[in-house]
């Protein structure tokens, strides 16, 4: 029967007599785990921030009525030339409106779906911003401000004012930060907008919007959906876009195809709209985990080398242990215990160092105009990363100690003693 108390006592004595080598091995694990925790928490936090920058502002499914050229041209309707080969130049889009027919019933239908978290109407139109002698072309989007803020995190990108201010002001506008700077406007000022079909409408600036995408902030502004209907002279059921958010983003692609077939509208899912961005995110995550795992493997090799050297230095001790009645398995357990003790101590210290470093990074100011809501460097302090780090520390030290311990188990004490 194995006497664990004796085995741990001998393992501890070996480690303490070679304290420099023991410390070196433990520090290898410590800095390996600490670097892993720091890197993975920082990189996943950064990736999450970049993902949120794009995906938070993108609906899971965007529905609109795309105006396309008629598939069947008038010339094909003449029976006399039905079998002839016709070439039509300068094909014009068919006469149609941008509005979504029966938009409100479609929204009610989508909301009744158990997989849909929410569906909101929008009206998008091109306008001119006019302030004094300055005229800028841009886009105006009519929204339901409170619902938009809650469902699509719009409140995170309002740097001045609030969605509630826009909701409560009929002639209010949430102006893009790029437009405000070009036209020297601030909250409380007035800006005139003119749709492409003519007219001039004064609006009061109740807030400043900054998405973090400079090209978008230089043209985009928001008003109440009723305000843009009044500016365009449209009825209350006039809607050009529907944005849908799902409980499960993975269902976006299949549901978008279903919506297109059911309502004969164009439905773009978030994965299709952001395919290039998702590819970049996948590559960044792959690099992060590859570097992190490499750090842990390097720490494991360091432990292997040190334990291997320790066994050669402890040949006499091993011979004496076997000569006094310890079995090969007992000797193997002694050296395995040493490896696991090094892994445990180094792993705990690594977690503490990693936690301290990411906590420090989390306090470092990080201010950029592209990301107005971010005040410090992003950190994703997910407990799973700490569990993975400690588990890998124990696993790597186990395998790093296993091979040297097998050598120790097979040492013949007679040959060692004769050699002395």
Describe the structure.
- With 420 residues, this protein is an alpha+beta fold.
- The chain has helices at 4-17, 19-55, 103-111, 145-152, 163-167, 177-182, 214-217, 225-232, 252-263, 270-273, 275-313, 315-323, 328-361, 383-410, 413-419; strands at residues 61-64, 116-131, 134-143, 158-160, 172-176, 190-195, 201-209, 220-224, 241-246, 266-269.
Describe the SSE topology.
Layout: H1 4-17, H2 19-55, E1 61-64, H3 103-111, E2 116-131, E3 134-143, H4 145-152, E4 158-160, H5 163-167, E5 172-176, H6 177-182, E6 190-195, E7 201-209, H7 214-217, E8 220-224, H8 225-232, E9 241-246, H9 252-263, E10 266-269, H10 270-273, H11 275-313, H12 315-323, H13 328-361, H14 383-410, H15 413-419
Parallel strand pairs: 3-8, 5-7
Antiparallel strand pairs: 1-9, 1-10, 2-3, 2-6, 2-9, 4-7, 6-7
Distinctive features:
420 residues, alpha+beta, 2 domains, ten-stranded mixed β-sheet, 15 helices
Concise structural overview:
With 420 residues, this protein is α+β, with helices and mostly antiparallel strands. Helices cover 53% and strands 16% of the residues.
Fraction of residues in helix: 40-55%
Percentage of residues in strands: 15-25%
Write down how many β-strands occur, each being a DSSP E stretch of 2 or more residues.
10
Q: End-to-end distance, in Å?
A: 31 Å
Largest β-sheet summary: 10 strands, mixed
Class inferred from helices and paired strands: alpha+beta
Poorly predicted residue ranges: none
Order of helices and strands: HHEHEEHEHEHEEHEHEHEHHHHHH
Mean pLDDT metric:
80
The value of Rg in angstroms is: 34 Å
How many domains in all?
2
- Helix count from the secondary structure assignment: 15
The shape is elongated
């Amino acid at each position: 029967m194995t006497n664990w108390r004796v085995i741990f006592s001998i393992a501890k004595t070996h480690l303490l007599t070679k304290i420099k080598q023991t410390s070196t091995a433990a520090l290898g694990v410590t800095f390996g785990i600490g670097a892993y925790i720091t890197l993975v928490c920082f990189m996943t936090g950064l990736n999450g921030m970049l993902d949120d920058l794009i995906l938070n502002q993108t609906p899971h499914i965007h529905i609109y009525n795309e105006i396309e050229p008629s598939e069947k041209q008038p010339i094909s309707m003449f029976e006399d030339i039905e079998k002839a080969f016709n070439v039509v130049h300068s094909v014009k889009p068919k006469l149609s409106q941008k509005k979504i027919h029966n938009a409100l019933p479609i929204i009610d239908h989508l909301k009744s779906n158990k997989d849909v978290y929410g569906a909101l109407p929008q009206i998008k139109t091109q306008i001119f911003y006019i302030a004094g002698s300055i005229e800028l072309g841009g886009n105006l989007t009519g929204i339901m401000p409170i619902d938009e803020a809650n469902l699509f995190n719009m409140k995170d990108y309002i740097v001045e004012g609030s969605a509630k201010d826009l909701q409560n002001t009929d002639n209010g506008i949430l102006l893009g930060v790029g437009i405000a700077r070009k036209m020297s406007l601030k909250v409380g000022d007035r800006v005139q907008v003119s749709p492409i079909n003519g007219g001039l409408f004064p609006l009061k600036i109740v807030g400043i919007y900054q998405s973090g995408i400079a090209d978008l902030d230089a043209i985009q502004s928001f008003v109440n959906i009723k305000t843009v209907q009044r500016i365009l002279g449209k009825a209350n059921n006039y809607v050009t876009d529907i944005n849908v958010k799902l409980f499960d983003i993975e269902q976006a692609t299949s549901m978008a195809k279903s919506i297109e077939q059911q309502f004969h509208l164009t439905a773009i899912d978030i994965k299709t709209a952001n395919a290039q961005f998702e590819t970049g995110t996948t590559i960044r995550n792959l690099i992060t985990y590859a570097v992190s795992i490499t750090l842990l493997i390097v720490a494991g090799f360091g432990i292997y080398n040190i334990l291997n050297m320790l066994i050669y230095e402890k040949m006499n001790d091993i011979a004496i242990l076997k000569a006094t009645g310890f079995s090969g398995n007992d000797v193997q357990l002694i050296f395995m215990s040493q490896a696991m003790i090094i892994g445990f101590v180094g792993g705990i210290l690594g977690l503490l160092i990693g936690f301290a470093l990411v906590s420090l990074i989390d306090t470092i100011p990080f201010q950029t105009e592209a990301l107005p809501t971010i005040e410090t460097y992003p950190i994703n302090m997910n407990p799973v990363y700490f569990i993975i780090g400690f588990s890998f520390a124990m696993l790597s030290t186990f395998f790093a100690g296993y091979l040297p311990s097998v050598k120790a188990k097979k040492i013949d004490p007679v040959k060692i003693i004769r050699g002395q």
